Amino acid sequence: MWAAAVGVAVVVGTLVVGGVVLAAGDEVTGDGWVREPGAAKGPARAGGDPSRGAVAAELAAAAAAAGLTPGGATLAEQGELADCITDWSGDGPADESRLAALEAALVERGWRVTARHGEPVPAVALTSGSWRLEFTNGGLVETLSLVAKRSGRTCDEAFRRAEATRGPRG
User: Fold this and answer.
1) Which residues, at least 6 apart from 105, have a Cβ–Cβ distance to it below 8 Å?
2) Is residue 116 within 8 Å of residue 124, measured between CB atoms?
3) Residue 120: cis peptide before it, omega within 30 degrees of 0
4) Sign of dihedral through CA atoms 16, 103, 112, 151?
5) For the purposes of burial, counting CB atoms within 10 Å of the CB of 127, is it exposed (0-12), middle (13-18) or buried (19 or more)?
6) 61: part of which helix (H) or strand (E)?
């Protein structure tokens, strides 16, 4: 009863929080993300750092391979952020099997899972080259959302300037 009341259960060294399984020894960050074991290790992406267009195509192809239907078109970033961010949105939340298929399709395309987030809205973080992708399922807009941001001096500075002028929520 206690586990159901708070949404947490412990089973032989494994913690389950809101449907996300955290094995003993996983690194939990202060913001609720659980780092994948060995996520920082691994080979660099073959073929170098992908362009924004290549990342956008990979997101769309992985979503299609997972049987997901795209939602409405999103507005592309303009100006100095144009090469720093891309996204893909579904037409609603995805079921567990499609989320697993999406993750597998992204991994097949060279993305590495680096962290997971449990409640209130489950999310997965992946990296590919200088890109960090987060996908969330559900939330306030009740949809599957994939957002990839490029890191590096130019994009990091552009994101800081955009946040200073638009605020943290854009």
Assistant:
1) 61, 62, 63, 65, 66
2) yes
3) yes
4) negative
5) buried
6) helix 52-65
pTM for the model stands at 0.73
CA nearest 130: which of 52, 23, 59? 52
Contact 128, 50 (CB under 8 A): yes
CA triple 38-40-43, angle to 5 deg: 95
SS (H, E, C) 109-156: CCCEEEEEECCCCCEEEEEECCEEEEEEEECCCCEEEEEEEECCHHHH
- Cα–Cα distance measured from residue 159 to residue 81, given in angstroms and rounded to the nearest whole number: 7
Reading the chain (170 residues) residue by residue, the pLDDT tens digits are: 333 333 333 333 333 333 444 444 456 555 677 887 765 555 556 667 899 999 999 999 999 999 999 987 776 777 888 899 999 999 888 888 999 999 999 999 999 999 998 777 778 999 999 999 998 887 767 788 899 999 999 999 999 998 888 766 55
Q: Is 100 left (phi over 0), alpha (psi -120 to 50) or beta?
A: alpha
